[in-house]
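Page 47, continued from p. 46.
Same chain as before, 338 aa.
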Amino acid sequence: MALWGVWWQRWPRWVAWATMLWAVAYAGFGLACALSGASLLYYGGGAEASELSWAVVAVGVLATLVSGAAVRYGLRPALRVLLWVACGLAGITAFSLLMDVITLMLGQGVDSRAAAANKALAALGAVLLAATARSDRPSAGTAVRAPSAAPQLVQHTAWVGTLTFVPYAAMKLEWASGGTFAGITGDEMLAVSERNGASGVFLTLQSWGLDPTALLAVLGVFLLWGLVRPWGQVFPGWMLFLHGRRVPRWLPLAPALLGAATLAPYGVVGIGYLTLATAGAVTMRRGDFHSLGDALLVGWIGMVAFAAYGIALTIAARSYWLRTRPARRMSRLSVSAE
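Result:
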């Protein structure tokens, strides 16, 4: 443990090397996909799939050059800007990774392994690039802040994100309990899940009247409030063997950032699309629903929940990040002078 602690305290030194190794591997991954014709899109291929593979190569090459320069010359201001640019590009590439994670958790296979691997690699790179951009920040001489609640405005935003998930969870539980919503029965929805390759666990929970996505929504709300309330900075009391221990900052921030980066743009873009579909400007498929109106109703419930929760999660994560930043300790020299 002592060796691990020393190694971790020196992370600013190794993180740039780790970022450079990731960048080389990511560029190689994109090049392999481009040359082999493997599509990084879920559906289709052709010119768009090839362009995306070469875009991955470009991001990897940029990250390689910038992180290599940081290793060689140190973190200069211009390099820091380029690191954040590469981080943003990697974050965009990792869009909808959370959907893949949820799909795998529910026992269904992803539509494209290459696309899912690309998103996972991009998410890892975004974390490494951000860590490298901040690697010159001093870590010594700091103290842990006492747990604190988020400002009232942030907590009000958390309430909005929570309440907008209520109709979504109620809709899912209505289907799971065998009821009918938007013209489709619970049995029909269960048949759709079976046709889409849902796992035995998913189907068993639905047979018990529990929808797994509704349970995930409850966990998401728990995460949201853990970011804005003081108890979220320590392990809950019911975990007796961990009672009173402080939560590492990355533990809630990692899923929060992943969820915010996926759900906020997914919901906002979805609301824009549904607005056009409701106005008749674009054609929307009704899918498994019996009418377009039913499909629009379910779509609005889902997208409003995703957008509001994603935005609330973004605001809460930023507040948590600022409130849990290590505070500088007063130096011994200043204490003795007093």
